[in-house]
Design brief:
The structure holds two protein chains of two kinds. Chain A starts with 5 loop residues before the first helix and ends with a helix. By secondary structure, chain A is mainly alpha-helical. A two-stranded antiparallel sheet of chain A has the order 1-2. The relative contact order of chain A is 0.13. The radius of gyration of chain A is 22 Å and the shape is globular. Chain A contains 13 helices and two strands. By secondary structure, chain B is mainly alpha-helical. The radius of gyration of chain B is 25 Å and the shape is flat. The chains are: A mainly alpha, B mainly alpha. At the A-B interface, α1, α4, α7, α11 and α13 of A face α1, α2 and α3 of B.
Chain lengths: 385, 117
């Protein structure tokens, strides 16, 4: 096949970006809905079951429809689904307030930075190793071109992801500073200290995976780590420990419970986004949920088996001749990502918030030494076996 | 370098998306300005002091420690990829490097920099 021209590269890039963004924009509202429902059921209540509205008109018939859905076993879980549409409409039509004392340019720039950091990361994540399908031959310009499992399959994928993801903290700090108000400032400081503290164990927990795989390419790393080719069976140990350190740090990096101190309602109102309203707040919200998806994608790809059925290099038990189960699949990847997203919500329903000194202790006194030891174990396993 | 073009494209789209949605919502949203609405939020009380005060030096300390450890991970990254090729030499070199780092880590711990009151 001849190499692609620049125009073809851009056209294919656009198509893949739109495809990924559509999936993300479907997943984020579903995630907010799932969060309500799962927490609701965890607290023995129903969660959202209907939209607000009068006795007549569109919302009334919608509510009647959802009442009927409640009588069907599986469907009953999904009533209340239109609530996320209502949420989006509310955010868009809400009055946008920029406080008089705020720094207007930075105040507007901060949510954009958050969104760029959260969404830009999706470009280096591979959802499938290799080509998913080819574009139809008859299409002009892009006919017969491959639709890859990643938007950009770069050889320093992991490094790029870590670099861009850490830009996200600027969005939070700048937004907090530009608000020129006390609660956001305190929330922003806490958030910066927290994200910065957990970034070290986060990177250190990924290093055993890099050592064992010997590459930084997202797709190659994931395939090597789940199929376990050229790896000793003992590699399960550092990968298993690394998985738990990484997920813990992922919770802290995305400001989720039990590490949601930057947004601790009882102390800081809403933390760094107290002064934000309307869609400016909406984009912070979007970035937070997109970050959750990114953390789940990374944890899945490197520690949880990626595109294969079994994690931690155990895939070699199933020979490649077995249909479906022996092959990589986009479905396995998405199923595992969804499972980890469920864990995010599950933890929120279960654990209380940490105190600030406990948070710092966990990061600096436990996770950093643990991840260094884990790194050493991985190095010895890679060297000796 | 061609492989990086889609990344740039996605970053551009991600940056334009908020601007686009904000312009759209500008057409739909109401606007009723008032002095109280545009003042800084302080639980309903009129703010008496400026928000941008001096902050605890603890946060500064965390940033400095982060810098040390982040540079360390930058050193570890290329070594981790070339681990098998560098073999025993790399392992010993990194062992010495990590030992020195652990020494410094023990020092900041003993000085109480990691204890948050």
């Amino acid at each position: 096949m001849p190499p692609m021209t620049l125009l073809q590269t851009i056209a294919m890039g656009l198509i893949q970006i739109v495809a990924v963004l559509i999936v993300v924009f479907i997943m984020v509202p579903l995630l907010t809905f799932a969060e309500r429902k799962v927490i609701g059921y965890a607290q023995v209540r129903l969660g959202a079951t209907r939209t607000a509205g009068g006795r007549k008109g569109f919302t009334a018939s919608l509510n009647r429809g959802m009442w009927a859905m409640g009588k069907v076993p599986v469907l009953s879980f999904f009533r209340g689904l239109p609530v996320f549409v209502a949420d989006a409409v509310k955010l868009i039509t809400k009055e946008d307030i920029i406080p008089a004392k705020a720094d207007r340019a930075v105040f507007t720039l901060a949510p954009i930075l958050s969104v760029v950091a959260a969404f830009g990361v999706f470009s280096a994540i591979a959802y499938y190793p290799g080509v998913m399908f080819y574009m139809p031959k008859s299409w002009p310009l892009i006919g017969g071109l491959p639709f890859n499992g990643a938007i950009a399959d770069v050889n320093v994928g992991l490094l790029f992801i870590l670099g861009l993801a850490s830009v996200g903290v600027y969005g939070i700090v700048l937004g907090a500073w530009a608000s020129n108000s006390k609660y956001p400032l305190l929330g922003g400081l806490r958030s910066a200290a927290q994200i910065v503290s957990y970034e070290v164990p986060l990177t250190l927990s990924l290093l055993p995976a890099v050592i064992l795989a010997g590459t930084l390419n997202f797709k190659d790393m994931s395939v090597i780590l789940s199929t376990g080719q050229g790896m000793s069976p003992l590699a399960v140990i550092p990968l298993f420990i690394g998985f738990f350190i990484y997920t813990t740090c992922g919770f802290a990096e995305t400001n989720r419970v039990p590490f949601d101190l930057p947004e601790a309602e009882t102390e800081l109102v809403a933390g760094f986004h107290t002064e934000y309203s309307g869609m400016k707040f909406g984009f912070f919200y979007l970035a937070e949920y997109a970050n959750m998806i990114v953390v789940s994608c990374l944890a899945t790809a490197f520690f949880f088996g990626g595109y294969y059925l079994l994690p931690f290099g155990l895939q070699r038990i199933i020979p490649a001749s077995v249909p479906f189960l022996g092959h990589p699949s986009f479905l396995f990847f998405m199923a595992k990502v969804s499972l980890l997203l469920f864990v995010f919500i599950w933890v929120r329903a279960t654990l209380p918030r940490y105190r600030y000194d406990q948070l710092m202790d966990v990061g600096w006194k436990y996770l950093i030494p643990l991840s260094l030891v884990n790194l050493f174990i991985a190095a010895v396993i890679r060297y000796a076996f | 370098m061609r492989g990086y073009a889609p990344i740039l494209l996605l970053v551009l789209i991600a940056a334009l998306l908020p601007v686009l949605v904000w312009s759209l919502s500008r057409l739909l949203r109401p606007r009723f300005p008032s002095a109280a609405k545009y003042s800084a939020y302080e639980c309903g009380i009129t703010a008496t002091t400026e928000a941008r005060e001096k902050f605890s030096v603890r946060y500064y300390l965390v940033a400095v420690m982060f810098l040390v450890f982040d540079v360390e991970t930058v050193f570890l990254m290329p070594w981790a990829i070339q681990m098998k090729e560098l073999a025993a030499f790399g392992l010993i070199e990194m062992g010495i490097f990590l030992f020195l780092l652990l020494f410094g880590y023990g020092y900041i711990w003993s000085k109480g920099a990691l204890t948050w009151e």
